[in-house]
Specification:
By secondary structure, this protein is an alpha/beta fold. It has two domains: about 230 residues, Glycerol-3-phosphate (1)-acyltransferase (3-Layer(aba) Sandwich), CATH 3.40.1130.10; about 70 residues, no CATH class. About 50% of the residues lie in helices and about 10% in strands. The chain contains 16 helices and seven strands. Strands 1-7-6-2-5-3-4 form a seven-stranded mixed sheet, with helices on both faces. Helix 1 packs antiparallel against helix 3, helix 4 crosses helix 5 and helix 10 packs across helix 16.
Length: about 400
């Protein structure tokens, strides 16, 4: 396979690496970044460090992973993880996770892999987040695969085919694992669902049977659980508007979401690496009708994520608040209930609109994972879409 075929989307390599790192080192914004990462130190130290680096691996290990650790340390109470033992076999995998934060979902996974001496993965990221040349240099120097989402239908089909081939080659040759979100765009309502279109994209590069092609990808679901949802109010506001009209992003909105997600307090964070989608499950999918194959595969991925999603007190309190119930009252204190209620009120305090409806939407973002996870009997569940429907 000609490497030029992937040049537009793959991480930098060879001579591209040093050239991109030189551009990053020379960018004036680096001073502000240095002041945050290394307060009190000469910003030229970071510039000189990046100037001395020659590869994507060096930049990721010596700069990006340090930066993510700093952000997590500043904005999270605890970061825990489980299921990592299955990642030590050295095989390349397709890591498919739920998607709650634009940058941190994949970034935290890389930190966990790195500190456990497991090779970091490449990461598929939408091109809407790398429109600035500096951002593209940073991203593609950090093992980013660019997912091109702009163009006419023919162009998008071509780019999807190229992306599919690249992912399959990366995993099939053992060069690198690949991380990708289970859907296009973050989960906004707290319901994590794998898009069948994503699975069909994976299948575009297959040349054998359904079971063989997906078996070679070693799909490994990953669940990401935040105690405090990144950009929770921004997501609630978008859902509120979407109930009334088609939501349109404003200029700079993606950047604002990135910065908000990075800097917002997150409480506890837990990452779980699930069991790979196995041969028996793929065989069950393979005997289904065409579209049902992908539907069943998506359900297997979703079940892994739902069953290992860490339910926090914020989720249980939100469920009880939203439904005027006491299903989980033994799991949290009155003080915790009051504190979360005050947190909700603070978040929606500046909202100009129906306060009751926006609060219902806000609470549903936290409550929906409770329903998905199956932690309480179905007979006790209540709808959690909010009274504003």
């Amino acid at each position: 396979m000609s490497e030029d075929k992937f040049k537009e989307i793959r991480p930098y390599k060879g001579e591209e690496e040093a050239a991109a790192l030189a551009r990053i080192a020379a960018h004036p914004i680096l001073k502000d970044i240095s002041n945050y990462l290394f307060p009190g130190k000469d910003p030229n130290d970071l510039k000189h460090l990046i100037s001395s680096l020659k590869s994507v691996e060096e930049f990721q290990a010596k700069v990006m992973l340090f930066a993510i650790k700093k952000i997590v340390s500043d904005t999270a109470k605890n970061l825990t993880y489980s299921g990592l033992e299955k990642m030590h076999d050295g095989s390349a995998r397709l890591l498919v996770s739920n998607h709650r934060d634009i940058m941190l979902d994949s970034a935290i996974i890389q930190v966990i892999l790195h500190i456990n001496n497991i090779p970091t993965s490449e990461m598929a990221v939408g091109d809407n987040l790398v429109t600035d040349p500096f951002m593209e240099d940073v991203a593609r120097s950090n093992k980013m695969i660019k997912v091109i989402r702009t163009g006419n239908p023919r162009e998008l089909y071509k780019y999807s085919s190229i992306l599919s081939e690249y992912i399959r080659e990366s995993i099939g040759t053992g060069r690198s694992s690949v991380w990708i979100a289970q859907r296009n765009g973050r989960t906004k309502n707290g319901v994590d669902i794998t898009e069948q279109g994503l699975l069909k994209m994976f299948d575009m590069s297959g040349s054998g049977s359904f079971k063989e092609d997906f078996g070679k990808l070693s799909i490994t679901p990953v669940s990401i659980s935040y105690e405090y949802e990144p950009c929770d109010f921004l997501k609630a506001r978008e859902l509120f508007i979407s109930r009334r009209t088609k939501y349109k992003k404003s200029p700079g909105e993606d950047l604002n979401s990135i910065l908000t997600g990075l800097m917002q307090h997150k409480g506890n964070i837990h990452i779980h690496f699930c069991e790979v989608i196995n041969e028996q499950e793929l065989a069950e999918c393979a005997v289904q009708e065409k579209n049902e194959k992908f539907k069943m595969l998506a359900e297997f991925i979703d079940k892994r994520i739902y069953s290992t999603y860490r339910i926090w007190n914020t989720n249980m309190i939100a469920y009880d608040m939203l439904n005027s119930s006491n299903v989980f009252s033994s799991m949290y204190t009155e003080e915790e209930y009051k504190a979360f209620d005050e947190y909700c009120e603070l978040k929606i305090s500046g909202f100009e609109g129906d306060r009751a409806e926006i609060k219902d939407i806000f609470l549903s973002i936290y409550a929906n994972p409770v329903t998905n996870s199956g932690v309480i009997p179905v007979s006790q569940l209540h709808p959690v879409e909010g009274r504003g429907n």
